[in-house]
Amino acid sequence: MQATRTTDLDGNDKVGTICRALRRAIIEQALEPGAKLPEDALGERFGVSRTIARHALGQLAAQGLVELRRNRIAVVATPSWQEARAAFDIRIELERLVVRQLAGNLSRAQIAELKAHVDAEEAARAGPDAVSIRLATEFHILLASMTNSPILIRYVSEVAYRCCLTLSLYSRPHSSECAINEHRAIIDALAAGKADDVIALMHTHLDSVASRALLSPAKPRERDLLEILAPYAADESGAGKVRRKADLNGGASE
User: Fold this and answer.
1) C-beta of residue 209 within 8 angstroms of C-beta of residue 132
2) pTM, full prediction
């Protein structure tokens, strides 16, 4: 089985660049719930038109990270814990489908990619909880991408990001060691082709993630939107150059 190239839900265009940067800023709590996201300010930061910024906000709204209000006002979403529990229940069923499809069907390169991602999670343990939560969520989205099923990729990504935002906002501080060990166990079960075992592991893992969460109000902050997004825009600019280079190299070899 050939190694799959990870599917990017946003694509590699300007809309995708804004989506990735804003998503990270929201999940890592650089942008707090209720923060306004003016189209003109986003256009200025990313060097795009208001129309492109509006499309990006629309994609993030579909993922539950942004709320679109009347008069084209967009703000960072503020999900409730009740909504999060329902999202986790849906996510559990979707991800059972993912691991059932992948069990025993992953290439060595894919297994290595999953293990490398978990290594990155481990390396981030000493940093902010929100970064660890984002990386843990991206592990599940990486699994979904390996199914090569557009429907699973789309819906797992959307519900996972909704859950991720809620965890970033409301979960109590805890060691990420549990989640990392659970991810490693899932990889081992997938590699061994133990479908029933990995389905049970995924169910227990996601249910435990939801249960470890605890409502805790965030402290309000006042910062300029352009200042907040500066490092995220810079990261996306650098990552975009790497992706374009990889695409060119890949295209030359195909």
Assistant:
1) no
2) 0.74
Comparing 10-14, 43-47, 140-144, which segment has the lowest mean pLDDT?
Answer: 10-14
Q: What is the pLDDT of residue 182?
A: 94
Distance CA 172, CA 217 (A): 10
Phi, then psi, of 149 in degrees rounded to 5: -105, 110
Q: Tell me the pLDDT tens digit for each residue of 65-93.
A: 999 988 778 999 988 777 777 888 999 99
Average pLDDT over residues 149-171: 87
Q: What is the 3-state secondary structure (H, E, C) of the chain?
A: CCCCCCCCCCCCCHHHHHHHHHHHHHHCCCCCCCCECCHHHHHHHHCCCHHHHHHHHHHHHHCCCEEEEHHHEEEECCCCHHHHHHHHHHHHHHHHHHHHHHCCCCCHHHHHHHHHHHHHHHHCCCCCHHHHHHHHHHHHHHHHHCCCCHHHHHHHHHHHHHHHHHHHHHECCCCCHHHHHHHHHHHHHHHHCCHHHHHHHHHHHHHHHHHHECCCCCCCCCCCHHHHHHHHHHHHHHHHHHHHHHHHHHHHHC
Residue 238 has pLDDT above 70, yes or no: no
Question: Tokens for 36?
Answer: 């306004």
Phi, psi of 69 (to 5 degrees): -105, 180
Which of 28-32, 69-73, 92-96, 171-175 is predicted with the least confidence, judged by mean pLDDT?
Answer: 171-175
